[in-house]
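Changelog-linked ticket: nickel (II) ion example.
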Amino acid sequence: MQVKRFGVSLEEDILKSLDKYVKQKQFPNRSQAIRHLIRKNIVEEQWKGNNIVAGAVVLVYDHHKRELQTKSTRVQHDFHNLILSIQHVHLDHDNCLETIAVKGKAKELIKLANSLIAIKGIKHGKLVMSTII
Ligand code: NI
């Protein structure tokens, strides 16, 4: 895609904040940081507007917990049309890390994520909101 240049006027304190952000997040330059911030905002709007989006549900749980995997499988089958792939990693003797890649309407993905994260025995769960563009 063609890159266009444009001038941006900023107050000194905002520019300082931007430079701090560039350093903290290890961006190579201001342009990359601004690009990141704009995309971040677009993604947030897409999720708020119930657009078709993509993301991942990350779950950590103890596989010894009774019924947990049965419940998780049941939820995943209820929302099977939204799930692209599932990766299961055995972290140690007890704990499993599951990464479920999802794509679909934002509200449905949030519903799926909430249903999974709320299962009794899930130690940590998070929905990573991303985009398909
Ligand atoms: Ni496991």
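Closing comment: Example verified and attached. The chain has a mean pLDDT of 96. The pocket of nickel (II) ion is lined by residues 63, 88, 90, 96 (CB under 6 Å).
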